[in-house]
Amino acid sequence: MVAEIARLRAEYHAFIRDNIIRISPSGVFGDYPNFADGGSRTSVNVVWGIYKRLPEQAQLDVSLVSGQARGSYFENATRVFLQSSFALLAHIRPGRWRYETSRSIASFDQYRHLAYLSEALNRDKVLKTMLGANSDYIVTPDIVVSRLPITDEEINQNTTVLDDSQSVAANTRLRTQNNPDRPILHASISCKWTIRSDRTQNTRTEALNLIRNRKGNLPHIVAVTAEPLPTRIAAIALGTGDLDCVYHFALPELRQSLIDLGNEDQLDMLDLMVGGMRLRDISDLPFDLAV
Fold first, then answer.
1. Which of 169, 196, 209, 211 lies 20 to 30 angstroms, CA to CA, from 53?
2. Which bin fits 32, alpha (ψ -120 to 50), beta or left (φ > 0)?
3. How far is CA 13 from CA 6, 150, 227, in A?
4. What is the reported pTM?
5. Using CA atoms in the order 194, 192, 203, 140, what is the torsion angle rounded to 10 degrees?
6. Is the dihedral of CA 224, 246, 112, 138 positive or negative?
């Protein structure tokens, strides 16, 4: 019997295989799946190794999937996987949860003050000029996971935890009595189909804005990628203080591909990040969100 998380992970890979991965013909080193860097022999070889370990596949399609479409498909596939897998852990992390793509952080309780800032900028042209037309404070993560506040009836389900007293738990944002209209941001997830040097800084910038501008608890801040080269993943994975961790869509498959190729430099970097708790597999993410 296949474990549920393994089944959902295989479905995630099957969706990515069928809807995102395409063959890019006539590269410098021959044909290659479209999450490789066609100008890097190592990248091409590693990606072929990952691809052949994905669920049973038909012949690779040569039809074009634009970069924007790849990003959108990857975000939605990751969102569906998280929603389905996290639901399996409801007995560990109960609650009413929402999973959305491309929603501004100003929609959530910890960042509701940023909505007022945005309105002020739109009203005051001088202030808008000083702080910038597109304020960096209000970011829109690729995927957000949020928890809805709960009623006192839910809190008192097993015993009388609260009564109508206004002096007890009067400010906690988990009670609908105190927070009737704003979900609480639980996780911000950046999705990077591949990683190039010019695409890494915005991930860290988003993370730092989430950290600095919150009023309340800090959400989980993570990134998910299909990048095949550990040395490129390291650009967002190494270091601490911004991202909790980076998750690879197929980490065991990536590692086995590197072993088969005998690429010790890339393998050493991969093991450094895994051993240093900076890189994990996508199947680890729902469990980490349950913390």
1. 196
2. beta
3. 11, 35, 14
4. 0.93
5. 150
6. negative
Sequence-separated (6 or more) residues with CB below 8 Å from residue 183 = 98, 107, 108, 109, 146, 147, 148, 149
**SS3 state of residue 143:** strand
Structure tokens at 222: 């993570």
User: Amino acid letter at 162?
Assistant: L
**Fold held by 66-155+169-289:** Rossmann fold (3.40.50)
Judge whether 162 and 168 are in contact, CB under 8 Å.
yes
Contact status, residue 268 vs residue 231, Cβ threshold 8 Å:
no
Per-residue pLDDT of the chain (291 residues; tens, 9 = 90+): 679 999 999 999 999 999 999 988 877 888 899 999 999 999 999 999 999 999 876 556 666 778 788 999 999 999 999 999 999 999 999 999 999 998 999 999 999 998 888 777 778 877 777 766 555 678 899 999 999 999 999 999 999 999 887 789 999 999 999 999 999 999 999 999 999 865 677 888 899 999 999 999 999 999 999 999 999 999 999 987 799 999 999 999 999 999 999 999 999 999 999 999 999 999 999 999 999
Measure the CA–CA gap between 234 and 236, rounded to whole angstroms: 5
